[in-house]
Amino acid sequence: MERGKKIIIVSHCILNQNCVVKPYAKKQDNFLKFIKNFVLNNYGIIQLPCPELFILGLKRWGHVKDQLEYPNFKAECKVLLYPIINQIEMYINCGYKIDGIYGIQGSPSCGVNKTCRGNWEGEASCYKNLDDILKRVHLVSEKGIFMEILQELLKEKNIEINFYDIDDWSEEID
Ligand code: SF4
Question: CB under 8 Å to 33, separation ≥6 — which residues?
Fold first, then answer.
C-alpha cells in the first residue's frame, strides 16, 4: 500500500507565491527543498487558503496584524478554516498523522512565532514619509491572525498539532 497516512499543512503561499503581497513574492523554487523533503518521505500536503488573497484581494496593500484583527476579518478567516478543520478531524479519526502546520514568519496572517504589528491606518498622506511608515512596524512574538484562529478552532476540537514557521526572508528554505 502506497498511502503514507502522513500529512503536513502549509500556508498557501508556500505552494503558490502568486498570492503574496507585492513586492515580496519569491521564485517558487525557493521552497523546493522544503517541499521535496516531505514529498520524498511520502507526505501528503494540505494547502491552507490565503486569507489575505480571499478577503483583501491581489491588489491589497501590505498590512500589519493590528489592521486585520477586526471582527469581520476574523469571521471570514473562520469561514475559510472550517473545511480545513473538518478535513483534519476526518484524517485523524481515520488514523492519519498530521505532522505539523507550517506558516510564514512575520506575516500578519500566517506568522507562527512572529507576526508584524504597527500603528498604521488611513492614507499614506497621514505620515511624514516612507521612513515614518516603516519605522512604526515591528515584529512581535505572537501568531498572525489566521494562525491564531486556526489554533483556537483546533483547541475547540481538542486537536493538538505542532505549528512551525518558515522564514521565507532567508535565501535558503529547508
Ligand atoms: S503568508 Fe498567508 S496571507 Fe500572506 S501571502 Fe502567504 S498565505 Fe497569504
Answer: 172, 173, 174
Cα of 19 to ligand 1 centre, how many Å?
Answer: 7
Pocket test for ligand 1, best of 18, 48, 53 (most atoms within 8 A of CB): 53
Atom 8 in ligand 1: which residue has the minimum CA distance?
50
Q: For the chain, how far is it from start to end, CA to CA, in angstroms?
A: 29
Looking at the predicted structure, is the pLDDT value of residue 13 above 60? yes
pLDDT at res. 167: 86
DSSP 8-state assignment for residue 106: B
Inter-residue contact 65 to 115 (CB < 8 Å): yes
Q: Given pLDDT bands bounded at 50, 70 and 90, which one contains residue 141?
A: very high
Q: Spell out which residues line ligand 1, taking CB within 6 angstroms.
A: 11-13, 19-20, 50-53, 104, 107, 109-110
Substitution candidate for ligand 1 out of 9, 12, 55, 68 with most atoms within 8 A of CB: 12
- To the nearest whole percent, how much of the chain has pLDDT over 70? 96
On average, the pLDDT of the chain sits at 95
Query: Mind listing the pLDDT tens digit for each residue in 38-51?
Result: 999 999 999 999 99
Angle, CA 59 vertex, CA 12 and CA 77 arms, to 5°: 45
